[in-house]
Write a structure and sequence with these properties.
Blueprint lengths: L17 H12 L4 E7 L4 E5 L1 H7 L10 H4 L8 H11 L3 E10 L6 E13 L5 E10 L1 H21 L4 H15 L5 E7 L5 E6 L5 H7 L2 E2 L5 H9 L3 E3 L12 H6 L4 E8 L5 E9 L7 H76 L22 E4 L5 E4 L1 H10 L4 E2 L6 H17 L5
Antiparallel strand pairs: 1-2, 1-5, 3-4, 4-5, 6-7, 6-11, 7-8, 9-10, 10-11, 12-13, 12-14
Length: about 450
């Protein structure tokens, strides 16, 4: 199912899931909160700031009475302090749109985007004495725009029936690029009996890891994915090193440098298991609401892709079976036609032999036992006439062994009429002995 023209792509969900999907969108898109700070003097000392400002730069740096450069030193290398200096000197305000800034350093560093204004503050004489900083963080909006763009691409791939591996691989890379922290995405596909999970996509996980978990069972305590598949509900493991679900896979995860795994089951509209969607992390980590919302959104997208793939595969299999049935029917018809043609040929041959028998019987009135075969073709047969063949109408004729056997096989009710041979059975039993006499080597 895809969205109708002009419809939000994520609105194309079952009616029962609509409320949950809307909640996920609110979590992912977030709500914009204005930040404000009042800076004094050429050193840009923070006189006052609202809670949103301190939440943005980090609560551990929430204090006033110190220059901004001391609170947020990473702003120097990004040109923001120099920009404040220019506004202070010129008295001209500055407005930025969707400006990128990296806040904090090391493992706590995060990328953010802002719409902001540096507005000079003046005293009674009109001299600039400070700067007011007013801004709105647009990070979530920026991420949401990217998410919707990538999501639309995935939906278009599904609609044009792109290969499932291409869709799932693209989805995994999309999520890895969208999340600010490093994340490694894996999609496992359920077997038809839902007892095992097979590799679907995991572009950033090492090959040895993907090979090792390909075919893992679904069941309680079988890692994050096996358990999520068994429970049909998300399983969050924040620390692989200590979680009992990972007892059998801890060494493997260690070799792959994996410390946390959050797995979400991929479920079809009828409730059957399609697979699992997992987000791995290099360090122990608990998910935020936005992480869980992102997992649910893309698990739903994966379900759409997998169901479409299964439907297309079923259609192709049905077409293959139908084509095979058509081929078998055509083969049977060709065989039937061949058999019918052969039967007609045999009937014609039998009619011709019967005619020859009648003609030979008529000629035999003058010569009861001719020397040459009378059952041959129109060209005649010069072989000795050794067997007498008759039919149920009383017509009889002498012929060679070959033509007599041909008549017996093709003319209905034809039989050997030699009184001295005792019929067909005696004749057939007589032939091997005769053949042995012919083949017996001469001596002397």
């Amino acid at each position: 199912m895809t969205a109708a023209p002009g419809q939000h792509p994520l609105s194309a969900v079952p009616a029962g899931a609509g409320q949950a999907a809307e909640e996920d969108l609110r979590v992912l898109f977030g709500q914009s909160i204005a930040v404000f700070a009042s800076l004094a003097g050429p050193a840009h000392v923070v006189e006052t700031a609202n809670p949103a400002f301190f939440a943005t730069i980090g609560e551990h740096r929430a204090r006033t009475g110190v220059p901004l450069v001391e609170l947020v030193p990473e702003l120097v290398g990004q040109g923001f302090i120099a920009l404040l200096d220019r506004v202070y000197r010129s008295g001209e305000p500055y407005t930025g749109r969707d400006v990128r800034v990296v806040l904090d350093t090391g493992p706590h560093a995060r990328e953010a985007f802002f719409d902001f204004t540096y507005e000079p503050r003046r005293d009674a004489e009109g001299d600039v004495v400070g700067i007011s900083v007013i801004g709105v963080e647009t990070t979530q909006v920026k991420h949401a725009q990217r998410l919707m763009t990538e999501h639309r691409v995935l939906l278009e791939q599904i609609a044009r029936q792109a290969p499932l591996t291409e869709v799932l691989d693209g989805m995994a890379r999309c999520i890895e690029n969208l999340t600010p922290e490093e994340v490694l995405v894996s999609v496992l596909l359920a077997d038809p009996d839902a007892r095992h999970l097979r590799h679907g996509a995991a572009p950033s996980l090492p090959d040895f890891y993907n090979q090792a978990i390909d075919g893992i069972a679904t069941g309680e305590g079988v890692g994050s994915c096996g358990t999520a598949a068994h429970r049909r509900e998300p399983v969050i493991v924040t620390d692989i090193a200590t979680d009992p679900f990972w007892d059998d896979f801890r060494e493997l995860a260690g070799r792959a440098d994996l410390a946390a795994c959050w797995s979400t089951p991929i479920v079809a509209r009828d409730g059957s298991l399609l697979g699992t969607f997992a987000m791995y992390h290099r360090v122990p980590r608990a998910p935020q609401d936005s992480d869980l919302a992102l997992a649910r959104v893309f698990a739903g997208t994966a379900a759409l892709a997998i169901e479409r793939h299964h439907g297309e595969q079923a259609r192709r299999d049905a077409e293959t079976r139908a084509e095979a049935a058509r081929d078998e029917l055509a083969k049977a018809m060709r065989t039937e036609q061949k058999l019918r043609a052969e039967a007609e040929e045999r009937a014609e041959a039998a009619a011709e032999l019967a005619d020859r028998m009648r003609a030979a019987a008529a000629a035999q009135a003058a010569v009861p036992h001719p020397e040459q075969c009378r059952l041959g073709s129109a060209d005649g047969c010069t072989a000795p006439a050794e067997l007498k063949v008759a039919d149920s109408w009383g017509d009889s004729a002498w012929g060679c062994h070959a033509h007599a056997e041909e008549a017996i096989l093709n003319v209905r009710s034809a039989f050997i009429a030699n009184e001295e041979l005792g019929g067909l059975a005696a004749y057939l039993n007589r032939r091997p002995a005769r053949a042995r006499q012919v083949e017996r080597p001469r001596t002397g």
